[in-house]
Amino acid sequence: MDQFMQDNVNINIKDLSPGEIEKFVLQNNLQPFRARQIVKWLYKKGAGSFDEMTDLSKDFRDLLEFSFLLKPSLELVEEQVSKDGTKKYLFKLFDGNQIESVLIPDKKRKTLCISSQVGCALGCTFCMTGTVGKIRNLTPSEILDQYMIVNQNNAITNIVFMGMGEPLDNLQNLVKAINTFIDPNCLGLSPKRITVSTSGLVPQIKELGKQVSVNLAVSLNAPRDELRDELMPINKRYPIKELLDASINFPVPNRKFLMFEYVLLKDINDSDSDAHTLGSLLEGIKCKINVIPFNEAYPLPYQSPSWDRVLKFQEILISYKINVRIRKSRGSDILGACGQLTAKYPSKIVKEPPLPEI
Length: 358
Ligand code: SF4
Known about the structure:
Layout: H1 3-6, E1 11-12, H2 18-27, H3 33-44, H4 58-67, E2 68-69, E3 74-81, E4 87-93, E5 98-106, E6 109-113, E7 117-119, H5 128-132, E8 134-137, H6 140-151, E9 158-161, H7 171-182, E10 194-198, H8 202-211, E11 215-219, H9 225-231, H10 240-248, E12 258-264, H11 272-282, E13 287-293, H12 307-319, E14 323-326
Parallel strand pairs: 1-2, 6-9, 9-10, 10-11, 11-12, 12-13, 13-14
Antiparallel strand pairs: 3-4, 4-5, 5-6, 7-8
Helix pairs in contact: 2-3, 6-7, 8-10, 11-12
Bound molecules: iron/sulfur cluster.
The site of iron/sulfur cluster (SF4) has 12 residues, from α5.
């Protein structure tokens, strides 16, 4: 038995990837199909105890009981509904920490915005989560259970890792969770329906691309390094050119496009000149860009641009033949919109955020 398997007592079984469950099964001299039975009980039938897994022998169920925990890793403590139908969920973790997830209904699509960390180390100056600081990474089961719990009453069609945290600052747990999301015996989501959003951790973008093929959304927000350095301190470590190189080479699924997100901040990054610089930067790249008018949130020092400014910015990008969409603000009345999640932690505004420790 290797170190991982010796140490697995008290590990939530949902913290294991499907491959690790198969490894456990093989190490105990059982057939690989036993692993498929286990994950079907966990993810398709929502078993709450090993005793419910009646097609496994009693001895094997006892071994599972001895080796792992099987319990929800989150407790739903609050659900808020926005006037536009967006729902925000507040979850409590086993150690008392809290996270939020947001469900965004849009015609036939129901997208769950999932958190990957408690807080965030990246300190983007327009984001409320960044004002909390990083408290800790979420485990794979904490990532998966956001979906499992919300999906009980909502048929989720898509997931985006755009909730609290920088998903690529929690790469190992993110990949484990994605493998469970896409495994047909587990949650069986198409990789085309999964989007990972990043502020631009270049080595981790490359590593993610080696491990899985899902949609990538790069939070760009400035077309010039000096401005992006101010808005997103991570840019000082991985400037725009390096970020674009890594993003362009990321293996998005077939017939899907690399996505860029651009939060429009009044009088900061919304000028005609910035639109032209952005257009030149992305011209010729097979991508889509989402322009998101900033959602004002106290105490962040930014304002939302006028609608005319947003349309003008879009018009200039279109002149560079860029596929651009204005993303409507959803759930801002319940602080559930992009960049507004704090899970009730107090904000610590730092004038010049230091480079994050990642
Ligand atoms: S925008 Fe994303 S990476 Fe930046 S502080 Fe907010 S959660 Fe972290």
